[in-house]
Amino acid sequence: MQDLEKKIAEMESSALKAIEEASSLDHLEQLRLSVLGQKGELTGILRGLSSLDKDVRPRIGQLANQVKVKIEQAHLDRKDRLFQSHIEARLSQERIDVTAPGQIMPVGHMHPLSQIRQEILSIFSSMGFVTADGPEIETDYYNFDALNTPASHPARDEQDTFYTNIGANVLLRSQTSTVQIRVMEMSKPPLRIIAPGRVYRNEEVNARKYPLFHQVEGLLVDKDVTFGQLKGTLTAFIQALFKKQVKTRFRPDFFPFTEPSAELDSECPFCNGKGCKTCGGRGWLELLGCGMVDPNVLSGVGIDPEEWSGFAFGMGLERLAMLKYGVNDIRHFYTNDLRFLEQF
Ligand SMILES: [Zn+2]
């Protein structure tokens, strides 16, 4: 019997030593199984108790159970410590430094055309004009006929646009003046609208021309509207846009839907009229077209031209943006080159 007691004592000390030295949770579990598992050494001894003599059985049984409790306790202690150091190791490796600087995302800004559109709309909004919108795919009625430009009119040639296969008369609008007609059909005067939007022309691409560009159209219809009011409104607009007291001049021009019609020039705000690169040495900039609404256009939409009168104007956004920001090629606005866009 002393052999068995000795064996149990040796197993105890070697198991406790191995547990203490176990370097990982996996290793510790293997040790536990080898002693306390179903096929473990100590489990085998406890199973064999029944074959021992009755007089030694209680002593060996008690000893084996004491050792079992000791080893179980040592195993749990070691497991706790190994788990704790495992957590600490992970925490120190995966620590988040909340004071580290974050990733800075670049902040974008509005496209230069959007910027100048916003600026123009806000100037006219301060004068009581309301923004109106209309479709880009139009019929030739809204794009030409209703604007006093019948099929035989030579002005149609200057605004050759893109026709669709939806129908012979369905086209991409060549001007935002179409919105005037749609608004006048739907609402009664007095009216004050400003209509920004994309327009299309069948034109060769170069530094000054592009098949797609943007216009802003304005229309005022009221009683006893005078050309003096048109001049005052547009001069106030130009001075607000250039943030400068510039002179303006109105040169006679022709548009089918206004009578009389004029081209508005402003004194070059960059050289104060002395002549520079922007104004081509002339001292004046051609900015927009305008005029008094033709009575034919009013009667065409059911507004009595004897009772009501009005003025209209239209300008190209790209042209104004090119002048204001000193851009020499219209194509820069559409190529999405950040080296260009980031300058605004
Ligand atoms: Zn100039």
Helices and strands, with pairings:
Elements: H1 2-21, H2 25-36, H3 41-47, H4 57-93, H5 112-126, E1 130-131, E2 137-139, H6 140-143, H7 155-158, E3 170-172, H8 178-186, E4 191-200, E5 212-222, H9 227-242, E6 248-255, E7 258-267, E8 284-293, H10 295-300, E9 309-316, H11 317-325, H12 338-341
Parallel strand pairs: 1-4
Antiparallel strand pairs: 2-3, 4-5, 5-9, 6-7, 7-8, 8-9
Helix pairs in contact: 1-4, 2-4, 5-11
This protein binds zinc ion.
Order of helices and strands: HHHHHEEHHEHEEHEEEHEHH
Structural class of the helix and strand makeup?
alpha+beta
Q: Would you give the CATH topology of the largest domain?
A: BirA Bifunctional Protein, domain 2
Mean pLDDT: 90
The tally of strands reads 9
Proportion of helical residues: 40-55%
Would you identify the CATH H-level superfamily of the largest domain?
A: Bira Bifunctional Protein, Domain 2
Silhouette: rod-shaped
- Give the spatial strand order of the biggest sheet: 1-4-5-9-8-7-6
The major pleated sheet works out as: 7 strands, mixed
Ends apart, CA distance between termini: 98 Å
What does this structure look like?
The protein is of the alpha+beta class. The chain folds into two domains: 2-93; 112-341, Bira Bifunctional Protein, Domain 2 (BirA Bifunctional Protein, domain 2, 2-Layer Sandwich). It is built from twelve helices and nine strands. A hairpin with a 2-residue loop joins strand 6 (248-255) and strand 7 (258-267). Bound molecules: zinc ion. Residues 268, 270-271, 275-276, 278-279, 283 line the site of zinc ion. Zinc ion binds at residues 268, 270-271, 275-276, 278-279, 283.
